[in-house]
Amino acid sequence: MKIARLLLASATLGLLAAPQALADTADKKIALSNNYAGNSWRQAMLKSWQKVTSQAVADKVVAAADAFTTAENQATEQAAQIQNLVLQGYDAIVVNAASPTALNGAVKEACDAGIVVVSFDGIVTEPCAWRIAVDFKKMGSDQLDYLAERLPDGGNLLEIRGLAGVSVDEEIHSGIVAGVAKHPKFKVVGSVNGDWAQTVAQKAVAGILPSLPEIAAVVTQGGDGYGAAEAFKAAGRPTPIIIMGNRHDELTWWKQQKDANGYETMSVSIAPGVSTLAFWVAQQILDGQDVPKDLVVPFLRIDQDNLEASLEATEPGGVANKEYTLDEAKAVVAGK
Amino acid sequence: MNALMPSPRLVRAALPALSLAALLVAIWFVQPRAISYFGFNLMLNLAMPIAFATIAQLCVITVNDLDLSIGAFVSFVACVGATWLNATPLLGVAVLLGAVVVYALVGALIHLRNLPSIVVTLGMSFFWLGCSVLLLPSPGGSAPAWLAALVKVRTPLVPFAILVSAALALVVHVGLMRSAWGAILRGAGGNPVAVARAGWSLLRTKVTMFALAGFFGVLSGLSLVGLTTSADANIAIRYTLLSIAGVILGGGEFVGGRVSPVGAVLGAMTLTLAGSLLSFLRISPDWQIGAQGAILIVVLALRALVNRLERRR
């Protein structure tokens, strides 16, 4: 009797000592519903998911964490996919959505079936889902804050925008407009669409350069910095401060310039590993933690002093990445 | 030998039902919990707009034409449903009626100028897409509450989507296959010269069928926007090919006049469920399109076999 009670007590103690996450979600299954896998950013996103979740499954934090990608980037197809995931008995579905609104019906059905839905990057507006959004506007205004520090006298700016008609492009642009309003010494003298691609940006910048006065800096959206640098070089004009977007080719070029003539800039973009943050957030919700419905994920910024380390960690052709641990995810949830 | 075989005509009619049944057995085997009221509700509710779009395509294929604009048209209807129909219902209804009239006019144009329908409807698909983008430049809007409530109605015993599909198949079957008018409409596709000689207006039949296609396209778009609750200019682009595949899978042929409404609805369901099965099987998405194609090829190969049987008689 005494022994039994002792055993019981120690078992209780053991339970208390074990991290809470292990106790409650070991039998839970989480699925990733992804709408597109056709570029380096999405590939890196899926790889990060695979790496972090397979470790979590091995550690018995969750029972399964499977990734599903639709064959075509279509909202109706992803809606059907989400419904299938509901039937397959997943406890939580992490979504990178094809459309912010067209999945709402399917998301609501999943919520009604008692399933936790966490959207990230491409978020959904259905109120029952959690959203992990990137503050793209701040990504734009931060560029101007940095430039104001570097160039107290201001100057002419060239803006390279992304893909026309996509909400992300609109948001970063509005951030840049807000930044210019805050630092009125800067003036945007030209604007082109670089489609977040190196070659497109190079062509567009080369086309507009002859019509422009001296450019002090180039504000960008990521994926376009290297193309801009090449265009300035080809036109024989002095290289301005070009904000980079964490791509490997951009970081490599920056490193070469830094070694050759002490070139200084900064680089900013979203880490594809945000999928792993979404995974941990879903796990925390399943664990019964109180998580606010709208979370903002910090973007990944590279500065002069951590350039080498970041470049080293980035695969050729890839994007600088950050994978989240459970503790880091908890910090984001707590709003730190 | 022949005495033992069921008549090829029967086999042909039963093929869509048999493929659907085979698919259901496979799903039951892989994911038993999907074979339930709840499961069918989830798997088939998106089949409802596809079934409507397939019937719309069937109307056009009946008169020996092909509609490449149905996907863009359904998207347009969804956009109207999520904006005007909600904010100013009268304007919304007027626009949808106007859209059906435009469909009828397209039919008239194709007949009067003797234009290839593929070219005209391909052009129209850009027209509808342009209208959708003007109406809803970024995804959004919200479906009228009554529409969302209607498509999500929980009927007792049998899911709403199945009831609607069954009713749709029955109504179109009676109208097109069993009525005198239906015989003329089909005849206008199968043997236009004979129908014209008999004194029927080919223009009128073509306009009727295109108007019907527009009408079913409207139903497709409205049921879709009710399910998704909001729209996107590209929401149903895939429906063009899905609807053609559904008609062919259901026993229709590209020669005009040879169609089967019941088969087409079953075909639409088969295509929807095939996606679910592939997902349950955890086939990598890179292979899913290929696997979907393989299912189509298997069914069509079976049909070719039936056709050969028919010829041997």
UniProtKB/TrEMBL annotation, chain A:
Query: A Pfam family this protein belongs to?
Result: Peripla_BP_4
Q: Which GO terms describe its molecular function?
A: carbohydrate binding
Q: What is its main location?
A: other
A Gene Ontology cellular-component term? cell envelope
For this protein, the record's Gene3D superfamilies field holds:
3.40.50.2300
Which key words tag this protein in UniProt? Plasmid, Signal
Cellular location of this protein? Cell envelope
Domain of life (superkingdom): Bacteria
Q: Where is the Periplasmic binding protein domain?
A: 30-289
Task: Give the UniProt family note.
Answer: Belongs to the bacterial solute-binding protein 2 family.
Q: Which PANTHER family match?
A: D-ALLOSE-BINDING PERIPLASMIC PROTEIN-RELATED
Name of protein: ABC transporter substrate-binding protein
Q: Say which species the protein is native to.
A: Chelatococcus daeguensis
UniProtKB/TrEMBL annotation, chain B:
Protein name according to UniProt: Ribose/xylose/arabinose/galactoside ABC-type transport system, permease component
Task: Enumerate the transmembrane spans.
Answer: 42-61, 68-85, 91-110, 117-137, 157-176, 207-229, 235-255, 262-281, 287-306
Question: What topology in the membrane does the UniProt record assign?
Answer: Multi-pass membrane protein
Identify the InterPro entries for this entry: ABC_transp_permease
Q: Where in the cell is it found?
A: Cell membrane
Question: What PANTHER family does the record point to?
Answer: ABC TRANSPORTER PERMEASE PROTEIN YPHD-RELATED-RELATED
- The answer to whether UniProt assigns keyword Transmembrane to this entry is yes
Which species does this protein come from? Chelatococcus sambhunathii
> Which UniProt keywords are listed?
Cell membrane, Membrane, Transmembrane, Transmembrane helix
Q: Which domain of life is it from?
A: Bacteria
Coiled-coil ranges per UniProt: none
UniProt cross-references to Pfam families, sorted A to Z: BPD_transp_2
